[in-house]
Design brief:
Blueprint lengths: L6 H13 L2 H8 L3 H15 L4 E2 L6 E2 L1 H25 L5 E8 L6 H12 L3 E8 L1 H9 L5 E6 L7 E13 L10 E6 L5 H11 L3 E7 L2 H9 L5 E4 L7 E3 L11 E8 L6 H15 L2
Helix pairs in contact: 1-2, 1-3, 1-4, 2-3, 5-9
């Protein structure tokens, strides 16, 4: 007799794989960590193989888990498409969401996926740029809502989280020990001044080793152990890690992630997108 896979367990598995761990996944799913772990165990028991490598320092997929992930995505996409087509109200249109490059992951892909499942006829155009430009676009009415990274919040804004900046470098990297300290940042990065001030106050010499208009260039340089970077705690990009410097580098200030959105009364998709953004960043 054919067996059926539990879609709830599959969704928990995909969310853990996408977010990088049970803790973050539990926030996205609005479940406790123990409930997410139970779903993963149930799925592994159903297929009879281990899907997660729990012996490594960082959670990773086994070979069977990588294969399962592709199947799970297809099954969930079909499930969400069916429900979206048959149960959604006929909202159609387009929303523009602006997000700074360095906080797109891990939250925004989850937001876009969940919004598309609920409003399949609505299109969300993601505008990824730096905070200053996003605020200019918002003031001009060219985007419907934006996220920003700032040390304050302007009138009309809503702070979703406040976290410290942390130092990040290559996995097992050594360049953070060099002096002057080699830095990599975008030209318009709002974190640069805070990092420079902290280093100057600590009496640590530094040089701007990598400057670019592309966050991908910065990330590639850092992952190659050519320089170090700073990002908001919990938003570390792939292929880098938080530097365990044991006080050799100064602590960095906290940064707010703020939400600004146009005043639109009674627009259900607009409200739903804002709620999904709030939920996602509360889970980061």
């Amino acid at each position: 007799m054919p067996r059926n896979l539990d879609l709830t367990a599959l969704r928990a598995f995909v969310t853990v794989a996408d977010s990088g761990g049970v803790t973050k996944a539990s926030g996205f799913l609005n479940l406790t960590q123990s409930a997410v772990s139970m779903q993963l165990k149930r799925l592994e028991e159903a297929v009879g193989v281990d899907l997660l490598n729990r012996s490594a320092r960082k959670l990773s997929l086994t070979g069977a888990g990588e294969q399962m992930l592709g199947y799970a995505r297809r099954m969930l996409e079909l499930n969400d498409e069916v429900l979206g087509k048959l149960t959604s109200t006929e909202y159609e249109g387009e929303l523009f969401l602006g997000v700074p490059h360095d906080i797109v992951y891990p939250a925004i892909p989850q937001v876009l996926h969940r919004f598309n499942a609920a409003y399949p006829r609505m299109k969300v155009q993601l505008v990824s740029s730096y905070t200053r430009r996003l605020k200019t676009l918002f003031d001009r009415g060219e985007v419907d809502m934006i996220l920003t990274t700032e040390d304050h919040v302007d009138p009309g804004g809503e702070t979703l989280l406040e976290r410290p900046l942390v130092w990040v470098g290559a996995q097992n990297g050594q360049v953070w020990k060099q002096r002057p300290l080699r830095l990599a940042f975008e030209h318009a990065c709002i974190f640069r001044k805070a990092v420079h001030n902290a280093l100057d106050h600590a009496g640590i010499g530094w040089e701007m080793a990598v400057e670019s208009d592309s966050i991908r260039t910065v990330e590639a340089s850092v992952s190659a152990d050519l320089a170090v970077h700073a990002c908001i705690e919990g938003t570390e990009p792939p292929y880098v890690e938080r530097i365990s410097h044991n006080g050799a580098l100064p602590d960095l200030p906290a940064v707010k992630v703020n939400l600004y959105r146009a005043e639109v009364q009674g627009d259900e998709p607009h409200e739903a997108l804002a709620d999904l953004v709030r939920q996602a960043f509360h889970a980061v």
